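Observation: inputs received (chain + glutamic acid).
Thought: call the complex predictor directly.
Action: predict_structure
Action Input:
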Amino acid sequence: MSKVRVRFAPSPTGPLHIGGLRTALYNYLFAKKMGGTFILRIEDTDRSRYVEGAEKYILEALKWSGLELDESIEKEGDFGPYRQSDRKAMYEKYAEELVSNGHAYYAFDTPEELAKMREDLKTKEDPNPKYNYVTRGNMKNSLSLSEDELKAMIDNGTPYIIRLKVEPGEQIQFSDIVRGEVTFSSNELDDKVLMKTDKMPTYHMANIVDDHFMEISHVIRGEEWLPSTPTHVLLYRYLGWEDTMPQFCHLPLILKPDGKGKLSKRYGAKMGVPVFPLEWKDKEDLFIGFREGGFLPEAMINFLAFLGWNPGTEQEIFTPGDLIQAFELERINKSGARFDIEKARWFNQQYIMQTSDAELAKLVRPYVEAEGHQPTDDYLQKVCGLMKERFEVLTDFWENSRYFFEEVSSYDNEKIIRKRWKPENRKKMQDLKSTINRLSNFTGENIEAHVKKFIEEKELSFGEVLPFIRLAVSGTTKGASVFEMMSVLGEDEVAKRLARGFEDFDKIKENA
Ligand code: GLU
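Observation:
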């Protein structure tokens, strides 16, 4: 096989949706697996849809996700430029070539004339009549006008576009790696615009010229482009490039969790789940991102890889390197993939658990500092070691671990205090405090052994002691091992908290 060269070709019309990122990911994985080249091409010929900041967002999102580009607008290879607006001069020649060999034509219709045609010809069966072999004869174009009329229009400088001339009655066939042999009847196609009045190419024209000259071997893109593919096949054919035409691979849609409809940014906003890799603000809305939602990029990538692909085994955790090894285009599913944020959170938790304490401490530090605390690295690492199985996203770290950084100010289970705290045990509990305090070796294990011995000696029950130590120390009855927690907090802090807690419990009991 000739060298694998694949491109991710977003249009900078807004932030990169998670579906776009999945397209980028599959291109990247395939390129890396095959020792090929992963290219970013910015398709910005539709200036009316251009959004400021979108290009920067795309680059940043790819970087954060770890999808390293081999050629791009920032890293020019031998096939540049990599932004279509910078390649504008290249396209006209091929559109004109198609006109001269009879596969395209000039069209002079005004927007009003086009609207009138659609209005006049629309029927119940065909509410949206096409500009095609049926209608083009009655429109104003170089096929219908006489030579003199045509010349006059061009001499007058009447604006025109170039349209592809699709011949009726043809079966256009191509093979798709996901879908197998696909056939479209040319009768279903319209005469797509190739060049606009300002000599800017349309997506179809620019895409084919660029894929050809950038020597793209495989076009891996979303399913929404499948209906455009027969037009692309015709363009390759009419330009004489069919023998080097890339192989097509159309990826399944990403659906809402219930499988009903496409995952949209509106859905994300409504449900408060991220459907973008990074946060995006526009005039009206703020869309949350996986990054700001506390996801690790590797976890998001692992999750995305499974939206439309599976390795055919039970294995679910794949580092980016494992994914490259395991990935095969042939294992991409045909049917739509359901987006399930709970699964993404599960992946994230798996990755958090695998992250070293030192690394995790770096990741959670901003959240702790945002709350006004500056713990030492050593302390933060210990907290991470203890808590890493207890949060799914980084943003939940603070809420679950706050008692390691600030005093306990309330108790999440006063009911148990009112019911089970025994002021008559207070003296004994006071002794517990001194026992713990006197421990020379303040490890979880040692604390546990002493507390248990103490409970036995004083003839108390676990239920009379343990929940109250936990509440006094952390304010909550949930959480990590109470003995480990105490060890991390240190003996002075523990002594202080026990004293304060026992006093509070008496008061709560009194007021009950
Ligand atoms: N510019 C198109 C997009 O925004 C690219 C489609 C393709 O890959 O051909 O998705």
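Thought: report the result.
Final Answer: The CA atoms of residues 106 and 162 lie 5 Å apart. The chain has five domains: 5-72+207-255, 89-195, 265-355, 356-402, 407-510.
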